[in-house]
User: Which sequence fits this backbone?
């Protein structure tokens, strides 16, 4: 993004900060902004309309959104959401992620290794019950335990009663707790994927840019009992697709925003988390790029991981740039000060006012332990992922086996939350996944992580000394990866069934390494969870005060649960130039020619050969003012009639500030146009049956 | 490098640590290892032989080595040494760095923008004079000033007496000081360069690997008074080239080794310098790669810089891996302890023993200021390069203009050393270089550096606050780069001629920024130079004790001055497989086919088309046991007769430990074979005249 655009963006943003921001919000389905939509677009959102859209929306647990688009169980998402599944089903012989795939018959469809899809069935507010279980006098530590216990209890109770996956979700940073119940699907089969070259046309340089020409779609068929499911709700395909200027909606699962964070928390992000994360992402990007360049097969093995690293690098770079802009931070400071003045006034809350100090203190405390925590314990959101000092699939599995044995011996409510009974099915799906894990890749990954660990904590750190066992990071990584048996699914099943004794008897070197650091890692986690709990209680106090002062007609930060956004298909200005809302097929060929067809602007051979057959006026991608963020990838874009008119796949660079605030002058959500999908299925991919199924809503 | 190779390497290295290491050493020309060579290879090194090789050797001040190879002033070096010149003479229209170049006539030769070549004329030991000028009672601060003064005096005196470039060189970390006198050449014209694709065949993945197939050569013609120089000494071209097993010599300018560093200094490298440098290199690699991918012209603009960053990243990664290996550090500790015991014994030195403690303390002290120093003052070795918080050509020039005005007003001996009278000609060549500087590239580079600065020092740091002036890093970078006039050579000449007043009156925003931080930056430099002086004195004491105990028949660490190495053309074992010493043209085509000709293993079109014309048995690259390091790139490899048989262009991965120690079991130096140059000039590049000039030693 160039300088002028940034400056104007924030001037605009500052100007808007005072008034209501037009199409803002990732709204809860049980608190939809009916009045705003009615006022702004004259459209009446009904319960039936909402229920239909919700039940046609699908969550991809590999990290994205999607929707049912046929009565025969066809589900559509982005190619880059399907990428995880495509990578896992590929081999040296078949590089589906790079080359694409089309199953002409049901027999040709390929079952995904460990993909789980969720459809949201109901939402229940359990705030009162959760809060009642946490005594006001409890310390952070006790409160965290109490909250974990009641959460596990509610989830198990619901799971037993309904048979549905049941997750208690924290909203408004602790202001509310809602119970989300999902129908799970785990037999998911690949139907169609284009070449990554056209799905991600323009690659890293064009990522988060616009205009774009990406056919970022992937089609799966959902099965139950070996038969395609017949979803009661699926989206009808619009015969015309998105029109410039029209009202559209996005139904999907935005992953995480930080709009309600305090200034102290934003400063922590700016000064600590984001620079650290970016440093690590860039280190990893270089590692994977260099290793991938050595051989075609290496490149295939790291393909999805590298895409993911580059994507996050660009997102985090954009977020950090936003926080490094004094205009953004000043606006946040001004808003926080204004609200604190309200809190000090009539109808305010001394508790909420004090909460800011508590949050700042807890944030500081988290900062003290964050590095060791990241290196030795890792990300609580991705339970199977190894910590950053041990990056490898093998370590992630080894630690899970070790802990599963220990945790399952405890009462449900006292376990680490990922081992709770209600999560067991999804947990086992992942634990016993037989996705390919490559020894060579595991070794370079772990070697780099161990080197990073030693660099960060120092070679004389007692834990580092124990972990390296007198060897160089590279030698130690090779020894561990070559020595462990956890890459065998059979071995995992045996140990998981056998419990602690079986795990101990195995004397697996990777599991023993996990054991070696487990006390410290658990301790770090407990420390951070205690501080998180303190923050959550403080945020709860602020949220309650905000509800009291401003009502509950607002939306919480994103939590990878289903949300509704709305807005208009609308172009925008960049450097004094108007960027129209829609691109078309002709633009793709112009872009490629202007870049001399050099990668990543080269066309797949089929796209070069079949140009003449195409209607070049067909819309390709379009932008709208809908409020989205990562996790929304694959979300259906629908019109007033609830028809599928496109699919979200990206935001523009100006949308990256959206982690912290929404503005609708420059910030745009990018969708693939529904017509582009039909045109390419028919003219490029010789898949008329699939195009017909989409248009007709059945086979 | 795989694990086994590393482990075996260090086992070998440990075994060798006790006995004399065979072909070790980057020897001074005034202290050549005649006895060792005689004993090992039965070859008598004479004064005439040494003088001839020395006077035919050429230093490329852009950072490499080379040699005269024709009576008509032809000088050969590596393509990657010539890259700096190729980049600067390229434009959007002519990408010589990527596409290569051949001047069929003298008129077609292209003059380099700011290249300076040096030929070593004489060496004089001035240790006694330097030491006599530094009182034994002086503090680090006073000693540094005294040493700077005497150095400037010796250099100016020599410059005035001989007209030659005169540099006092610190050897043995302060054990000796020698005066090196060079003949300067500054009219250098490009004659031939191949495509980078074949010069750097295999790209980053094959860098520091073997077997290889790189035509890493570049030919320049050296002029004086608009006529080609007729060097009295140039290397005859061997009619057969390097033969497996034969004794060969390398004459070149190894840049820097760290073999005499103490364990405390090595730990500092391992724990501080190297991880920091690698973090920054990887950050920069991602920045340049991503920006270069956006457009072909961007890619051209960053081409040489990106190559350089990737190359250093691989070197530093290898060095860090070596220091992360306990085997290496343990061997260093053992050796240091053994020598300290000698020092404590008869004929030892209490001074030298105490020096270890002083070095450790000074290293600690340097560590305290290193970060600010790197960010605000930068690298003393590259005086024009901007510090790491301000990376941009524009800042480098702006600060040089500011300081030149201030320094030139002082007596010669009291100036910062780069402004000494003896260095003036080379300094002005660089200051007034009209190499292209691109505004867009300058902005992204400075924006990233300012962001890095703020991340490292914090947003509330007083200096950071002043520097950012209330703006985001990106906005501030754009403002500075767009506002400064220093990219105009005319502007630079005016300010340089006008002195302090002219500089002040200009009110150039970049110069004013340099002024804003100059007091702090100079202070940091003084602090570090004082500690360096303390270390230098301590190292001097150790060196003198070592001379007393072990004689002076050893070589000092590399200093980018001319050195002689020797060894044999010899293959080596890797993972139990013997790698023969020589590759040939057939191997190139096999390598390309086995990688499906995908980049960076693709062949330039000419190389595909003309395969049939080639004698595929012609040798391409070869390895030898010669002891080299970065800076040796472009060094001639010669046989007993002093004939040119190849040109150094790389080492294998196992050679990267060479920064700290030499071993000859796996460590190999890589050369382009002389026959490969002739074969490709004739059969691929239609340059028979040039091939004849090389073979005949004249046009």
Assistant:
């Amino acid at each position: 993004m160039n300088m002028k655009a940034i400056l104007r963006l924030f001037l605009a943003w500052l100007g808007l900060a005072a008034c209501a921001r037009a199409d803002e919000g990732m709204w809860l389905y049980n608190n939809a902004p009916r009045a705003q939509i009615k006022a702004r677009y004259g459209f009446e959102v009904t319960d039936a309309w909402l229920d239909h859209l919700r039940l046609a929306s699908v969550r991809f647990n590999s990290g994205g959104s999607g929707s049912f688009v046929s009565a025969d169980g066809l589900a559509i998402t982005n190619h880059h959401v399907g990428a995880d599944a495509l990578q896992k089903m590929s081999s040296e012989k078949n590089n589906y992620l790079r080359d694409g795939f089309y199953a002409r018959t049901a027999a040709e469809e390929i079952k995904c290794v460990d993909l789980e899809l969720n459809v949201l069935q109901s939402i229940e507010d359990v705030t009162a019950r959760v809060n009642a279980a946490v005594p006001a006098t409890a310390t952070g530590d006790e409160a965290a335990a109490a909250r974990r216990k009641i959460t596990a209890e509610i989830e198990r109770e619901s799971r037993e009663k309904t048979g549905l996956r049941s997750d208690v979700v924290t909203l408004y940073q602790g202001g509310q707790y809602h119970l989300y119940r999902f129908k799970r699907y785990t037999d998911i089969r690949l139907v169609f994927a284009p070449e990554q070259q056209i799905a991600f046309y323009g690659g890293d340089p064009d990522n988060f840019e616009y205009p774009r020409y990406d056919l970022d779609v992937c089609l799966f068929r959902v099965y139950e009992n070996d038969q395609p499911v017949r979803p009661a709700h699926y989206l009808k395909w619009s015969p015309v697709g998105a029109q410039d200027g029209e009202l559209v909606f996005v139904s999907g699962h935005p992953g995480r925003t930080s709009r309600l964070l305090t200034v102290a928390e934003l400063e922590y992000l700016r000064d600590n988390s984001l620079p650290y994360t970016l440093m690590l992402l860039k280190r990893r990007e270089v590692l994977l790029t260099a290793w991938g360049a050595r051989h075609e097969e290496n490149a295939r093995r790291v393909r999805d991981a590298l895409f993911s690293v580059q994507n996050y690098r660009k997102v985090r770079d954009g977020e950090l740039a936003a926080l490094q802009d004094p205009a953004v931070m000043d606006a946040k400071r001004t808003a926080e000060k204004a609200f604190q003045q309200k809190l000090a006034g009539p109808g305010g809350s001394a508790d909420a006012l004090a909460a800011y100090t508590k949050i700042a203190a807890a944030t500081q405390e988290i900062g003290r332990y964050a590095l060791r925590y990241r290196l030795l314990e890792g990300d609580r959101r991705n339970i199977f992922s190894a910590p950053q000092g041990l990056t490898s699939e093998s370590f992630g599995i080894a630690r899970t086996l070790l802990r599963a044995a220990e945790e399952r011996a405890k009462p449900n409510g006292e376990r680490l939350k990922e081992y709770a009974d209600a999560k067991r099915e999804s947990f086992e799906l992942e634990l016993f996944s037989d996705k390919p894990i490559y020894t060579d890749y595991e070794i370079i990954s772990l070697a780099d992580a161990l080197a990073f660990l030693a660099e960060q904590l120092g070679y004389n750190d007692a834990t580092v000394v124990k972990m390296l066992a007198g060897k160089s990071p590279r030698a130690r990584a090779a020894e561990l990866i070559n020595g462990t048996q956890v890459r065998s699914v059979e071995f995992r099943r045996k140990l998981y069934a056998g419990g602690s004794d079986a795990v101990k008897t195995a004397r697996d070197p990777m599991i023993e390494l996990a054991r070696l650091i487990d006390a410290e890692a658990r301790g770090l986690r407990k420390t951070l969870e205690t501080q998180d709990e303190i923050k959550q209680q403080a945020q709860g106090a602020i949220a309650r005060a905000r509800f009291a002062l401003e009502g509950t007609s607002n939306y919480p930060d994103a939590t990878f649960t289903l949300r509704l956004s709305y807005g208009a298909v609308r172009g925008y200005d960049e450097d004094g130039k108007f960027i129209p809302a829609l691109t078309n097929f002709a633009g793709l060929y112009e872009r490629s020619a202007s870049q001399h067809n050099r990668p990543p602007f080269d066309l797949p051979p089929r796209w070069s050969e079949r140009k003449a057959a195409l209607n070049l006026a067909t819309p390709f991608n379009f932008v709208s003012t809908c409020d989205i963020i990562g996790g929304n990838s694959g979300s259906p874009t629908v019109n007033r009639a609830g028809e599928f008119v496109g699919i979200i796949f990206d935001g523009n660079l100006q949308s990256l500030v959206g982690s912290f605030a929404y503005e609708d002058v420059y910030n745009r959500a990018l969708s693939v146009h529904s017509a582009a999908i039909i045109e390419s299925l028919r003219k490029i991919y010789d898949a008329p049956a699939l195009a017909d199924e989409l248009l007709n809503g059945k086979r």
Remarks:
- Chain B touches chain A through 46 residues (CB under 8 Å).
- The two ends of chain B are 44 Å apart (CA to CA).
